[in-house]
Predict the 3D structure of the following.
Amino acid sequence: MAGQTLCMLGCGNLGTPILHSLLNAPPDSLCGITQFIACVQSESSERRLKDRFSMHENLRVTRNDNVNAIKSSHVIILGVDPSQVEAILDDDSDIDQGLKGKLLISIVAGWTRPAIEELISAESDLRDKQFPNQPRAWVLRTLPNVAALVSQSMTAIEDHPSPNFPPHFKDMATAIFTQIGKPMSIPPALMPATTAVSGSTPAFWAIIVDSLIDAAVAVGLPRKVAQEQIYQSMRGSAEMLQSGIQPGELRDMGTSPEGCTIAGVMVLEEGGVRGVLGKALRESVTVARAMGNVGGKGGKEVHVNDTRKI
């Protein structure tokens, strides 16, 4: 259906790149979405978006007017800070009414779909049986990452979000997140782990790369030269791995007897890099589960390999 409007509720470090990609998407690539509304709270954010997207006549930027923006939209992306979700969605009954019959896509870490449905009175099973002829809001949980800034996000989309979930809404979400990278359907039980595996690892890569650049500078390379070499090495390695080469194979391809690479690899092994990185990721997953339990009211969820007790 042409002429659909998408509302971006919150335009921070993740919402703004997503909005940028959608505004510049090829025609007819968004399942009929052609108009956009960006909702912000501060005057500085309003000014920032209006300056950045001044050439896009199909975008309207509003401040502190969430209810009217939601009522005027067909699809809403919830991109506010996790601490603001309850205040925004549970603050006004008009928001509940404005969301009825529409798709609410959450990109907020830590908030489960049932918890958001509870805030907007959209719980599915019992409600649909009691009020079969009344429209309800359809909530879809997704998890993009910061690589959306360069349209290389890995976006997890919760599979089987709720009974009777309209297929065209799932198609619309897939079309939206295809514009910012690669979407992937993930079972609900794996969403907390995906929060960290997909969402936290860009920061891990940044720390690893930064340490290699500093070391390269220490042995004589100018920082700019070191950055160019290491960034390209990382990109080339990623391309090889995505082509089907296994990590062990890639390591063996770069090592030779008495060579410099195997010497460095041995230092990494002696320093326990595998264990430290593994523990860091498991800790991030542990905290992601805790975020869901506190902010998302998802109940106690502790995995056998979590790094500490919750």
